[in-house]
């Protein structure tokens, strides 16, 4: 069906046609995505975060094995986005990330109790609300994002629809833009997996996890989906263009990372006296 759709519509019209198709497909869920009390509360909180950190820098911490070779303690006083099961490292690091983001249904379903124990701002897909207790008071509600798998775009305003881009890292980049961060620095985004197979296939881990910083991350019995690195690269290129056109930037300080989309910087070079003094004075 999708291939037929592509053949019948001329290339210049394909993107608007895709957007119209996505709108029609998601039309039934739109009232809840914008009018449900939980989402209305989330939109209110997202409004309060809009451009709140204008001019600041932040770190998006991926969960690759390279984190074991990264002195994450240097980020104690920085603004940080953590993803999925990053909390497994909090005790070792001695601090928790400023924000926590997770949009994968399998991860949220299996880790919901852990997520509920965290006390930083937490962002989850609106789709995954079914995994959370219906009786949560507003003070304990996470911030729900209206994310979708289709209709590629980069959302400059996270109160509306966000494309997931086949990686939660892309959602973090959209949130960071929404919040006004001028510079986003990636670490731990190794963009490399030892587990092979068809993208998005659900598998069950049979032993320690070799793909992340902690062997417990997707440990024995954990259900997870194989990555789609090609799709995530397309999303990253989109993010780079939007940031650069806005006079902002994304750089990659991952130690030994395979991603070749963003300019590379040395991790230790980010913590010179000038940068530290600027952070303190800010």
Short synopsis of the structure:
This protein has 282 residues and is of the alpha/beta class.
Keywords:
282 residues; alpha/beta; sialyltransferase cstii, chain A; 7-stranded parallel sheet; two-stranded parallel sheet; 34% helix; globular; disordered N terminus; disordered C terminus
What does this 3D model show about the protein?
The chain is α/β, with parallel strands linked by helices and 282 residues long. The protein has one domain (31-281): Alpha-Beta Complex (sialyltransferase cstii, chain A), CATH 3.90.1480. The chain contains nine helices and eleven strands. It has helices at 2-8, 11-26, 30-35, 37-49, 90-93, 105-116, 168-179, 229-245, 273-281, and strands spanning 57-61, 79-83, 99-102, 122-125, 143-145, 147-148, 162-163, 183-187, 202-204, 223-225, 249-252. The chain has a seven-stranded parallel β-sheet with strand order 5-4-3-2-1-8-11. α6 links the parallel β3 (99-102) and β4 (122-125). α7 packs parallel to α8. The chain starts with a helix and ends with a helix. The model is unreliable at 1-14 and 274-282 (pLDDT under 50).
Topology, pairings included?
Elements: H1 2-8, H2 11-26, H3 30-35, H4 37-49, E1 57-61, E2 79-83, H5 90-93, E3 99-102, H6 105-116, E4 122-125, E5 143-145, E6 147-148, E7 162-163, H7 168-179, E8 183-187, E9 202-204, E10 223-225, H8 229-245, E11 249-252, H9 273-281
Parallel strand pairs: 1-2, 1-8, 2-3, 3-4, 4-5, 6-7, 8-11
Antiparallel strand pairs: 9-10
Helix content: 25-40%
Largest sheet, strands/sense/barrel? 7 strands, parallel
CATH-scheme architecture: Alpha-Beta Complex
What do we call the CATH topology? sialyltransferase cstii, chain A
Q: Uncertain regions: pLDDT < 50 for 5+ in a row?
A: 1-14, 274-282
> Average pLDDT value?
90
Secondary-structure-derived class: alpha/beta
Put simply, the count of helices is: 9
Radius of gyration: 19 Å
Assign an overall shape: globular
Instruction: List how many beta strands DSSP finds.
Output: 11
What pattern of helices and strands is seen along the backbone?
HHHHEEHEHEEEEHEEEHEH
What is the class in the CATH system? Alpha Beta
> How much β-strand is present in the residues?
5-15%
Distance between the termini: 54 Å
Going across the biggest sheet, name each strand in turn: 5-4-3-2-1-8-11
